[in-house]
Design a protein that fits this description.
The complex is a heterodimer. Chain A contains 11 helices and no strands. By secondary structure, chain A is mostly helical. The longest helix of chain A is centred in the first third of the chain and has 38 residues. The termini of chain A are far apart. Chain B is of the alpha/beta class. In chain B, helix 6 crosses helix 8 and helix 8 runs parallel beside helix 9. The two termini of chain B are 20 Å apart. The chains are: A mainly alpha, B alpha/beta. Chains A and B meet through helix 7 and helix 8 of A and helix 3, helix 5 and helix 8 of B.
């Protein structure tokens, strides 16, 4: 066989292997999605998303408070986490060599990989012990998970803005801080938004920190210093229920709602922050 | 080294007009460093008002650094240092209480690669300097857009698509948009750092004729590695080599009658 033919065969084999790897990688992803849709759709109706959470094993009711609780807790966590994350990311990108920046970058990487249960314990000792199980404690714990992700992605996105764009603004007599918050931020917008959405998706599904901070509840939101319900906690509770025919479909339904919610937030945010020119 | 003063007499015989011109920028003992590497060595030169001055020299001779010292852009790069004086209308821009931001508002700059703001429309690019500095009066902005795009010879090509992205234009149009953007803030001086090096010959010709027009109303300083371009568009030419100002005088003198051997060798292509 000549050399060309062997090369061609090697090429075919490598290409097939990469496709095979791709298919294997997709199997768990697609099967989770299909399973959730198939089992979740029958459980979902208007009552399911609007009514109060019933006690385990009791028919009727829904997961309304859990949807509300997740929206509130994730919302507050974002209000805390997004500005802190974005601004610290900008600071790391603009002043990359200071001692503070080097320390912050290292701690940030540690925090990104921190097991979420540890964050839960942090929220528990810092806040729950003082003011009790509460929405605030949950939001702070989730914000603590969010900040390192947003910081990292913002830093990378700001660093990718070409120096020529920054210089163009500075040469027009625009002060440096203003150059950063106008020209640089709007050029880095896409990357920053992606980071924020990633972090929201990540914290929306977190269960461990919420177990230790907002506790969970069957009732509607009752104040920022009170326990509240959340989707991951509802899924957790329904799925460990002994009443498999009544509660397990609810767990699937709640899972599908959680996935759809994250998808929905992503679509809406991307629509409102879309680039004018591509 | 060639003394600038002696050339004045020669020059005034040939172009009497130049005697009426005054100096806009006076550079005195300017040194610049990148880290420990000194890229400009004791530069002394006076730049005339409302004329085009070209800075030529081989790659790495410090041309770009020289003009970046004139609007205090050099110091933005980490590890750089400047010493000496740059007098703008007699006032040192490196003086203790001078804000570089106000210096840059008086001195516009056009860069080597066209760099319109990609997320802005043509309209917004043209008035970016005004908008970013807080001017939002719609009438004033409209007037400025038209005026600066006309001065940059771009108006006729873009007047029907001002809301399109700046980066949708061709390279030459983008560069003229960048010139319009620099003109919109009404600077007194325009620095151009090899503005045609990324452009084709037709786009280059358009920018060159624009440079000629601009030098009637503005003090224009052009860095170029293209000697013919310097000969075509400039009134005065400075030749830089290894960070030193080798020769400076009227473009005619430099090209037809260089006094320094190095200048002659460079201009005749013996090195470069």
């Amino acid at each position: 066989m000549n050399r060309y033919a062997t090369r061609k065969i090697k090429d075919r084999i490598m290409v097939s292997l990469t496709y095979l790897a791709l298919v294997i990688a997709l199997i768990p992803l697609i099967s989770i999605l299909l399973e959730t849709i198939m089992r979740g759709v029958p459980a979902i109706n208007l009552q399911f998303i609007s009514e109060r959470i019933p006690p385990l094993g009791q028919p009727g009711g829904g997961i309304g408070p859990a949807i509300q609780g997740t929206l509130i807790v994730v919302g507050i966590a974002s209000l805390i986490g997004v500005p802190i994350g974005v601004f610290s990311g900008i600071s790391l990108a603009e002043y990359p060599e200071t001692k503070l920046a080097l320390a912050a970058r290292f701690l940030n990487d540690v925090l990104t990989n921190m097991p979420s249960i540890v964050i839960g314990i942090f929220g528990w000792t810092m806040i729950v012990v003082v003011i009790g199980w509460s929405v605030i404690a949950g939001a702070v714990a989730l914000a603590a998970m969010m900040i390192p992700i947003v910081t990292r992605t913002t830093e990378e996105a700001v660093k990718l803005v070409p120096a020529s764009i920054r210089e163009a603004a500075i040469a027009l007599g625009v002060p440096r801080w203003k150059t950063t918050i106008t020209v640089v931020l709007s050029s880095a917008k896409k990357g920053i938004i992606t980071g924020i959405l990633l972090s929201i998706a990540r914290i929306s599904g977190e269960t461990a920190p919420l177990l230790l901070t907002i506790l969970g509840s069957r009732f509607w939101f009752n104040g920022f210093t009170e326990p509240t319900a959340a989707l991951p906690l509802a899924i957790f509770n329904f799925s460990k229920s002994p009443y498999s025919t009544i509660d397990w479909p609810r767990a699937w339904g709640a899972s599908l709602i959680l996935i759809l919610m994250i998808l929905g937030i992503s679509v809406v945010v991307r629509y409102f922050t879309r680039e004018k020119y591509v | 080294m060639y003394k600038y003063e002696t050339s004045l007499s020669v020059e005034t015989e040939k172009i009497p007009v130049s005697e009426l011109m005054s100096y806009k920028i006076e550079i005195e003992g300017l040194n610049a460093w990148f880290g420990n590497n000194q890229v400009l060595k004791d530069i002394n030169m006076k730049i005339r008002e409302n004329a085009a001055t070209a800075v030529i020299g081989p790659s790495g001779c410090g041309k770009t650094t020289l003009i970046r010292c004139l609007n205090r852009m050099h110091e933005l790069v980490a590890g750089t240092r400047v010493s000496g004086k740059v007098l703008l209308d007699g006032e040192d821009i490196y003086g203790g209480n001078v804000d570089p931001v106000t210096v840059r508002r008086r001195i516009g700059m056009v860069f080597q690669k066209p760099n319109p703001f990609p997320m802005m429309s043509i309209y917004d690019n043209a008035v970016a300097g005004l908008k970013l500095n807080g001017i939002n009066d719609k009438r004033k902005l409209d007037e400025t857009v038209e005026k600066s795009l006309k001065s940059a010879n771009l108006w006729d090509e873009v007047k029907d698509k001002l809301d399109k992205s700046g980066s949708s234009l061709s390279g030459g149009q983008q560069q003229r948009l960048c010139i319009a953007r620099a003109l919109a803030v009404e600077p007194e001086i325009i620095l151009m750092d090899e503005p045609c090096s990324a452009l084709d010959p037709i786009a280059t010709a358009k920018i060159e004729s624009l440079m000629r027009n601009l030098s009637e109303d503005y003090t224009v300083v052009i860095v170029t590695h293209n000697m013919q371009q310097a000969a075509r568009v400039s009134d005065f030419t400075a030749f830089l080599y290894l960070g030193e100002l080798i020769e400076y005088g009227s473009t005619e003198d430099i090209f037809e009658n260089p006094k320094n051997e190095l200048t002659e060798k460079y201009l005749t292509g013996k090195f470069g």
